[in-house]
Design a protein that fits this description.
This is Peptidase M10 metallopeptidase domain-containing protein. It is built from four helices and 13 strands.
Length: 329
Amino acid sequence: MNKLVMVFILVYSGGVSAGSFIFAGEANGVDIIAHPTGYDGVVDVVNVSVCIDPTGDETTLLESPVKNIVTTFNNLRSESGNIISGSANNIPSGALDWESVALHEVGHCLGLAHPNLGSQTGVSGANTNFTASTDGADNAFDFDDGADNIKGTSDDLRDDDINLHWYNTGINNPFVLTPPYDSSNYSRTLAGLPGGHTYVTNASLEASSSLGAPSSEAVMQQGSRSNEDQRELGADDEATLRYAMSGVDQTSGTADDYTFNLTYGGITTGCDIMIKHHDISGLAFCSVGGSFISGSSIQITGASIEIDAPDFTWFFNDVIFKDDNDDPD
């Protein structure tokens, strides 16, 4: 099988529909769907173990946040208004919430990419909020945010940039859930956009109020803010995971559908997803390996997360879920 390796980096930002999948792009194909470790097109329950690397720093402080992350993904339940800032959360002023950052990185380990362009070659500043795409045949991203002056929304003009963001056809609203989560109801091509829409909207904080979901953003949106609690999935995150769960045929209710179950393995080695907190250059990144299981489906074969930045003050949430239905805040 063809083997692939990718690295996804989360960049700190002082202010800064279904989504996208890792490995999708010009190199591997724009229609790629990524699946968690262990999915082979046949198995119906994918078990994914998550561990804390014992050679890292602050290992015991990571246990409660990691257990919460495991529960959050297993619940697979999105929340509107999933950004909680200021005195409404338990994060000290000026600190970064480790749990929120790690939740994003584990999303990469399960197959999710950024729904926005994020920081990459040819993209910087506010342009990172434009919807995920290739740079097209001209090898240059095209940025026109349309009449609403909000980047990454339905009136953007992107010329030949090829969209990578799966969205609910006829709706193009990443803040609402519209089952079934499969190719009958979600699309990557622009042909399914509602009349008058020119590009796919992504679930940025900037777009949330205009679409009736204030203080909401996809967890997988690249960018992290101080004093921000984002410990719950957004609708975009849930829909993208559920789309992948429709299997290699991208059709719900067929034999290749699956569910996933994350388990916390402790402070040890040998798990499917390894998390290490230590001094690195940057804020956080996820290294993911994968291999093709069909023409457009890739199985993750290994994933490791590294988080830290000496210049930042970290907050390690010690409030753990009591059960699968409790909110940690």
